[in-house]
User: Which sequence fits this backbone?
């Protein structure tokens, strides 16, 4: 083979260096300009906001690939989440493949699991960590503008130098991982404002954006947003458990309910209003930190049950499925008020298998298939159910509903975000 301009055919794990036009051919080894984008999110953030941050990072990687090198997104392992409190369950270093279909994610943007990154990279080293932060001075003259600048770190760094001069910190529970360099960057704007920084100012191979939630969506609810969201197909084993449960306890099947699902998300184009849903009311009742602050937009259990009963009557539904993070005491009270409610309660073995994250996904999947759904105000857990129902083709009136607080005056209902195909 002669040298010169070529398209590389290097293909590995779904990502490829198709865009690299020059490469060196030495004996039989092909090199191409693969670069890795890693990221992490503020530790207290939960599973469903993290899913949202993934969309922002996927968008950034698409921009990076359009404008330059062959960037690959490295999926941050799941673990040590505040809400995952089931004891004696291994809930750290969980690969994305346990919760999502990797082939589906890869049909949207090149992604790899962290352990694959370690293997490809030749070790647990990250060249550069950029800790994102706001501007110390806030918005100058009250005017908001997009900008990004290297700045001194505002908060105390969550990384410290070891004896060899490497930076150690929280790398998803991978204790051996270390960074060569950690700096802070003030950023204000959408995810793709990082593109020039990552292409021009930085030339190293692997870059991690910490506190990635600092960056905003490039285009919330636009085509690119929805492409990525649609590619976030839950793992098959979790969907199957949810489907079995629907059939067994809620008399719900895809055929009857017009919720046929395509494994291939690029072909999943259900018409708005085509889904009927199973003969049950789906409820997401968020408790814990949502009630501790005595928020006025979150109902008491009594208030919630009153609403549930009235919806069941209105929509002529005899069954109600309840997804909730209520503690034992509240659950007991809820069972007293609503003895006929159906809940997904995993056995110990199932919990060990699916983990808290998988159980939450099964809850979301079952809520997503209900004839009518009501969720909790500004819960990202509820928002992700809205999106799932939008993908399945439910009418907006059956989806964008939330409980009102007992004394809430203006109880604004959630916004309908239509899919852009
Ligand atoms: N299984 C289950 N877990 C829930 C439910 N509601 C909340 N959780 C847990 O609590 C977490 C809530 O955090 P997050 O995902 O950030 O959603 P948000 O805080 O409601 O916006 C979830 O990720 C779950 O781990 C529920 O209905 N079922
Ligand atoms: Mg949360």
Assistant:
């Amino acid at each position: 083979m002669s040298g010169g301009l070529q398209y590389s055919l290097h293909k590995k794990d779904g990502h490829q260096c198709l865009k690299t036009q020059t490469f060196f051919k030495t004996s039989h080894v092909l090199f191409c300009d693969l670069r890795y984008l890693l990221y992490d999110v503020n530790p207290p953030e939960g599973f469903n906001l993290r899913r949202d941050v993934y969309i922002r990072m996927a968008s950034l990687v698409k921009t990076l690939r359009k404008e330059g090198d062959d960037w690959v997104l490295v999926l941050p392992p799941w673990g040590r989440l505040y809400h995952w409190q089931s004891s004696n369950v291994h809930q750290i270093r969980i690969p994305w493949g346990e919760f999502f279909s990797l082939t589906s994610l890869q049909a949207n943007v090149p992604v790899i699991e962290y352990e694959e990154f370690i293997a490809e990279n030749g070790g647990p080293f990250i060249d550069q960590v950029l800790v994102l932060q706001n501007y110390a001075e806030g918005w100058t003259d009250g005017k908001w503008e997009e900008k990004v600048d290297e700045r001194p770190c505002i908060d105390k760094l969550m990384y410290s130098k070891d004896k060899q001069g490497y930076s150690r910190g929280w790398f998803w529970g991978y204790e051996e991982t270390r960074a060569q360099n950690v700096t802070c960057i003030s950023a204000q704007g959408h995810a793709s404002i990082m593109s020039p920084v990552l292409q021009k100012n930085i030339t190293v191979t692997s870059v991690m954006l910490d506190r990635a939630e600092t960056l905003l969506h490039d285009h919330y609810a636009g085509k690119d947003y929805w492409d990525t969201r649609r590619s976030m197909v839950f793992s098959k084993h979790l969907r199957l458990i949810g489907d079995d449960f629907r059939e067994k306890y809620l008399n719900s099947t895809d055929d009857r309910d017009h919720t046929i699902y395509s494994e291939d998300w690029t072909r999943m184009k259900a018409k708005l209003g085509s889904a009927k849903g199973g003969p049950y009311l789906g409820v997401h009742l968020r408790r814990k930190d949502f009630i501790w602050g005595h928020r006025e937009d979150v109902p008491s259990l009594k208030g919630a049950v009153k609403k549930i009963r009235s919806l069941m009557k209105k929509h002529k539904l005899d069954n109600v499925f309840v997804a909730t993070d209520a503690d034992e005491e509240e659950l007991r009270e809820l069972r007293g008020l609503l003895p006929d409610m159906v809940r997904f309660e995993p056995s110990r073995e199932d919990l060990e298998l699916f983990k808290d994250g998988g159980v939450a996904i099964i809850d979301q999947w079952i809520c997503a298939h209900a004839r009518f759904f009501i969720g909790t105000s500004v819960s990202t857990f509820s928002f992700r159910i809205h999106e799932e129902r939008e993908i399945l083709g439910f009418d907006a009136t059956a989806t964008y509903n939330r409980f009102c607080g007992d004394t809430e005056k203006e109880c604004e209902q959630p916004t309908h975000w239509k899919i852009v195909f």
